[in-house]
Amino acid sequence: xxxxxxxxxxxxxxxxxxxxxxxxxxxxxxxxxxxxxxxxxxxxxxxxxxxxxxxxxxxxxxxxxxxxxxxxxxxxxxxxxxxxxxxxxxxxxxxxxxxxxxxxxxxxxxxxxxxxxxxxxxxxxxxxxxxxxxxxxxxxxxxxxxxxxxxxxxxxxxxxxxxxxxxxxxxxxxxxxxxxxxxxxxxxxxxxxxxxxxxxxxxxxxxxxx
Length: 210
Hints:
It catalyses: L-lysyl-[protein] + 3 S-adenosyl-L-methionine = N(6),N(6),N(6)-trimethyl-L-lysyl-[protein] + 3 S-adenosyl-L-homocysteine + 3 H(+). The chain is about 40% helix and about 25% strand.
């Protein structure tokens, strides 16, 4: 991928500062990455797998925290969201407060350098964060490898990693996460037709840590 400002912290700090101001003025929490169906897809999979509601769940790059709010509304009680942008965490705290979800834990954390506090998760969820890491102008390849190492350190053996990406195909993600993870299933995502060929605008996969 070509390097992009979308892979830098200053970009996201500025973006979430704007969203934080908009929330304070209008109550709008901002957009849901990959749309509402992306949250429904994750929750349906957790329910289908009968994941216990008290299982520790980590939302990597939580942004406005709306996914965590939906998980809480669906009965999940052990929820943690991290983001390296303090403005994103401020926004998600305000959203959490408005929704009355006191059981959501929010932390300013850089996933590429996780603190010791981040460990023992049964479920890790990523909607677009790995995509952003991949666009970093400064050694994106090294940062992708560090992402995988971090994931291995925070996710329990046999824990599940659910990733939604608009930059990577299934085959590419299988290659990126080949060390330490095995594919469990591909989740259905919206399809489009172009030039007589059918494709997917996003890829959603479930991995299991070996």
